[in-house]
């Protein structure tokens, strides 16, 4: 058992958990922040991504004792009355489908826009490469990130669904 101090979304937390406990487990089970999701647990899907000092990091594979720096989760990125531009764009464009992957996708997108406020479509696609979406809505995510960046080119290349076709 170890005692660890973490700063999450600007607040300091002390947790007593066994060494090797993942940051994801600590966030969800000890701190009560359910915004990062458990997907694969194997650094394959990105659903658990949080920012550590601004860098997208798989919380499922980060033992709590290795966390150095400030942790930001989706819950700390914005508030309903003061959303991060990526959150607003995802909402406005209804970019998600089931929504399970969204926490990780938005964290990767927020990190990209911090470093590159005017990304190209290719920049966005590359930044979201580590995040999987089983609903297949990556193109809508790219549009939403470009919209958040205020890019002129955010029209979708996804075919418009025909009436009666499955979505
Ligand atoms: S749950 Fe962490 S990468 Fe899939
Ligand atoms: S919106 Fe369903 S997994 Fe991405």
UniProtKB/TrEMBL annotation:
Output one GO MF annotation.
Answer: oxidoreductase activity
Keyword annotations of the record: 2Fe-2S, Iron, Iron-sulfur, Metal-binding
PROSITE patterns (alphabetical): 2FE2S_FER_2
Q: Keyword Iron-sulfur, does the record have it?
A: yes
Q: Which CDD domains match?
A: fer2
> A Pfam family for this UniProt protein?
Fer2
**Transmembrane intervals:** none
Q: Which residues form the 2Fe-2S ferredoxin-type domain?
A: 2-77
SUPFAM superfamilies xref list: 2Fe-2S ferredoxin-like, CO dehydrogenase ISP C-domain like
Q: Does this entry carry the keyword Iron-sulfur?
A: yes
Name the record gives this protein: (2Fe-2S)-binding protein
Q: Which source organism?
A: Mycolicibacterium agri
């Amino acid at each position: 058992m170890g005692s660890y101090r973490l700063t999450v979304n600007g607040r300091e937390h002390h947790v007593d958990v066994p060494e090797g406990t993942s940051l994801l487990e600590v966030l969800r089970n000890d701190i009560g922040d359910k915004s990062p999701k458990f997907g694969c647990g194997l650094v394959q899907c990105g659903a658990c991504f949080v920012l550590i000092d601004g860098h997208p990091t798989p919380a499922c594979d980060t033992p709590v004792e290795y966390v150095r720096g400030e942790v930001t989760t989706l819950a700390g990125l914005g508030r309903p009355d003061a959303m991060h531009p990526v959150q607003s764009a995802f909402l406005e464009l209804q970019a998600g489908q089931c929504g399970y992957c969204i926490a990780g996708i938005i964290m990767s997108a927020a990190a990209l826009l911090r470093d590159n406020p005017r990304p190209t479509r290719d920049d966005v696609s590359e930044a979201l490469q580590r995040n999987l979406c089983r609903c297949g809505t990556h193109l809508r995510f790219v549009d939403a990130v470009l919209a958040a960046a205020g890019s002129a080119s955010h029209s979708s290349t996804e075919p418009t669904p025909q009436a009666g076709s499955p979505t």
